[in-house]
């Protein structure tokens, strides 16, 4: 026995004491491996298996003699191979995954695990494609160098584009498009970092996923498990390495260590610190969240292709967004006999509060715009085409653009954002405004912007006086923010860059500017001891509460239907307080909500804007396409009130697949009567953002996942199904925007079940994930019971009455046309149109 013991010790090159210690260490390793085996056996999906293996890799293994290390390594290898073979057939059936994973190979992280522990002497025996852990770390570093270098290398090309005059000219339709998605320099700075991470992800997908035979979807999911490196991880600090350590920049933007106070009464401008445990949730300049994993043809950023056919073939690209628009949508006048244009305008106003997707400018020169088609609507030469371009192909037989021989519609890709978990992976797009319903379109989404809009006197927002009336302040950059012409020089500034978009939108902004200053004046009268800061913050707090109340009590039940709103728990209380807030609910806006579902608003728009007098007769009519980003019409005598009455009187268009030609061919038109198509742009944006197809969202929302086009028949008309069949090869190819808009309205709402589901889900989180929501109790921001009851009296009709120039009558429910049950009453009638009594805000010294 002693002889055997000596032989073992000699073979292991250890004395008796050392071998005893190694034995103890071996027992610990054995226990760890036993636990590991159980963890691997519990994995139900490939993703879970990868995550479990990643956890295993992080566990330290004691330093052992070669023979013992070899034995343990063999055991590890056996466990992983056995688990993969025994349980591989079961993996991939998780109901939580959109697409099942196949298990015909080891996940790359398991391969890393095997490679890490295999003896170096046996490296040559490993099969090709096995990736060692340190190799992945090296590939991450090289990929980040590649990402940084690729963006830097664009500098020369971008300089050539600028010197060649390949940029957007002021006053053109492309200029209007740029205004609508104008990026701030801060957004571009974050976007540049995110683009480096995106380029690095693409490099990793080629250097790791391709070698390991991963599908594009598997690769994308795997990359999200790899974190961007931080300076603390490497210990290096050279300038070049700091550029590559995007993890620090990402962590700073999504910091969980941001100093926040539970006792803060007023919201931050950018949405930070709403959640104390997740301070960056809902913050401006962060990415949209996802309801479904993104779908790109390469897994990272390239737009979807047809689901049937071989990839990498131009013939497998989805049909042109312009072709889909002209085939699926119609230019027609189909008014809603009950709803008014105020419903359309409030929808857009809420959309601008919650979402603003900026487009890219040049990565190395934020002052220079990107143009993807020439000014004649033709394709640019390849050397003049920026990598951020994704132009829309226009067919030669286009019903409108063929007369101009136009073959190209401008589309610049959206600014990308760092992933919230600071990982590699597919592109996520940025929301430039806060994700909360917090009046950001009035007050701005950064502290700098908010301060630039204040007078710092009497709690007022900046304004100009013209003809005795209050208007928005003049823009500091009118040539950038408006499509100006010699006869139209007015251009306004507000919390949102899109304020000048069209007359009704500018009217709505002006009404709420006046509402803020009206409330601030009243509060100062009631509390003369309050200073500017308190007057401003209290007026802002009341205005945001009014916006939330109007949205949830008046607007949402019309859009989703009263029954659905009630069933979904989206009804607001008529008395008492709410306890809806949850620290664990992320309010961040979803990509599908911002990019598709809420875009139904465009079908409600009207091309002829009627100016209505006090007798509800038409005085004059404005053509929408002549006033995009040209707001001077508001200052002409009588026009402001005429537009306000028009909002409350003129019919909205129905929510369907019909649109006014003012936005399907004349959007942001120039002097040549040529413009863009909003539907084409919306479809292209959905593809740019990697939105999965309509069929996947159907399934998510509880509808039958279609196997063929006839399976759509419960929700979509036969005529629309016929068009879909002609346009798309497969039910899985249908764009979310088109499928959602094609559905029949459900019950008493405006929308079909898919868009209703996406919008309902969003507003449930918008409410439950907001610590400052207006009807909450036991928060530092909570109103008193008396104040809350006064807030509940406010309606959009009261805002119209109180802030127009000389409107003397209004119906109580402005989203509905005047009728016997909703008749016009005097604006002085505080019983029919209740008015909040601000004496509830009197504060003793």
Automatic annotation (TrEMBL):
Domain of life according to the entry: Eukaryota
PROSITE patterns tied to this protein: PEROXIDASE_3
Keyword Hydrolase: no
Any one GO molecular function term: heme binding
Residues the record lists as binding heme b: 602
Alphabetical UniProt keywords: Heme, Iron, Metal-binding, Oxidoreductase, Peroxidase
Pfam families noted in UniProt: An_peroxidase
PANTHER family (UniProt xref): GH11385P (PTHR11475:SF125), OXIDASE/PEROXIDASE (PTHR11475)
Protein name: Peroxidase
Natural source organism: Gryllus longicercus
The organism's taxonomic lineage, starting at the top: Eukaryota, Metazoa, Ecdysozoa, Arthropoda, Hexapoda
